[in-house]
Amino acid sequence: MSLQYVGLSEINGPLVFLDNVENTSYEEMVEIKCGDGTTRLGRVVQLEGKKAAIQVFEGTNGISLKNTKTKFMGKPMELALSREMLGRTFNGSGQPIDGLGEIYAEKSADINGQPLNPVSRVYPRNYINTGISSIDALTTLIRGQKLPIFSGSGMPHNELAVQLVKQAKISEGDGKNFCIVFAAMGVKNDVADYFKRSFEEAGVMEKVVMFINLSNDPIIERTLTPRCALTAAEYLAYEQDMHVLVILTDITSYCEALREFSSSKGEIPGRKGYPGYLYSDLASLYERAGIVKGAGGSVTQIPILTMPNDDITHPIPDLTGYITEGQIVLDRNLNQMGVYPPVGVLPSLSRLMKDGIGEGFTRKDHSDVSNQLFAAYAKVQDARSLASVIGEDELSDVDKQYMSFGTLFEEYFLNQGFDDNRSIEETLDLGWDLLSVLPRAELDRVDNEVLEEYYDHERAVKRFGLKSGPIIKELASQGN
């Protein structure tokens, strides 16, 4: 028998408080009937003895302390699930907003997920091809991995998210079982329209499940959006045997909603005002990626977050880096130079890359290309730093060659355009052509046998329109 409570003890921001509550539990859903006859939903977010704090999804405007009726529903928030979700658009709490009506639910599941036995996890292997050279070659995305993108205000992370949705694919054999769950949190109306329009124009909407939380929606809904998205992804992966790529943008908006919500509960703040449990809260989202033993599908995550003031030591990127398996960092200097996507190669990494590339996955020379490109580009930065002190004219011939290589690498490899979808073979071949610009003696991260097969200075000279022989500094100003 469920009890109905009349009246409230306190209202504070998005929270209402109720005294003398019996037999309730954390995360339990609540139905609130206002004096004007309207009904709102909430959930229990705090329990202290017999006092319960209830988070009201639609906000507390117009709620009265005296004649409000509260009914506890005896279950946590659940999301209706079906394969029909593909191609549909939902709001942050999982309600359809595309005008196509309700979905026919095959089941409902708790949005907080189920505890996963670590022993049942399978080590991620096999890569997801994004068509973006800087990601595919240097920070390869592995199925079942969580690989965040660290961006900044004004950077093209929304365009990058759309390009990932348009171009991401897996091997031909499993291609039909690949889909994307896309969740946008705290976005403006024009950004939400941009996402929808881009997916429809690219013809990929039928393989996308969209969750949209707008900036003027309640912050409570924003804290639910990634959980609804991950619940849908787990259903498609573990019960429909699909390989799911989950893109969450922007995690910073989620964390700011969490901070505001924590403040309204009167909790003691941690670093920069964020709640002390921010790490465990983010982990409860990120750790829902992976492959489960016996399941035919997988969940791969790309959380996108904007770093306040481009500060990578800010609590959100800092804690995210501890939980996830690498990061892709967007570089503001490259962005100002007109390079798209402006992926900063040196601070980016993929910790699971080594086991998902090479023969049988991408190509046998992938690891060699990646290692040598990293090493060469690091020397480019050293040469540029030295040139800023002593001047370019005083550099050695080798340093001048690295300066030229750096310009070509940024112009041809990193910069590829919004609609340029490169295969892994095209990316690796381009990498070898760029490395072939350098003297063979400088390629010290690659075995001689591999160099014999792939190094070709004359081909590089022809491809980039260079003069044969030693590369002089004038080439540094050469573009397309």
UniProtKB/TrEMBL annotation:
Residue ranges of domain ATP synthase A/B type C-terminal in the record: 355-455
Keywords: ATP synthesis, Hydrogen ion transport, Ion transport, Transport
GO biological process, one term: proton motive force-driven plasma membrane ATP synthesis
GO molecular function, one term: ATP binding
Alphabetized Pfam families for the sequence: ATP-synt_ab, ATP-synt_ab_N, ATP-synt_VA_C
Domain ATPase F1/V1/A1 complex alpha/beta subunit N-terminal: 9-72
Classification via InterPro entries: ATP-synt_VA_C, ATPase_F1/V1/A1_a/bsu_N, ATPase_F1/V1/A1_a/bsu_nucl-bd, P-loop_NTPase, V-ATPase_su_B/beta
Domain ATPase F1/V1/A1 complex alpha/beta subunit nucleotide-binding: 131-350
The keyword Amino-acid biosynthesis is annotated on this UniProt entry: no
Domain of life of the organism encoding this protein: Bacteria
Keyword Ion transport annotated: yes
Family per record: Belongs to the ATPase alpha/beta chains family.
PANTHER family linked: V-TYPE PROTON ATPASE SUBUNIT B (PTHR43389)
The protein's role, per its UniProt record: Produces ATP from ADP in the presence of a proton gradient across the membrane. The V-type beta chain is a regulatory subunit.
Stated name of the protein: V-type ATP synthase beta chain
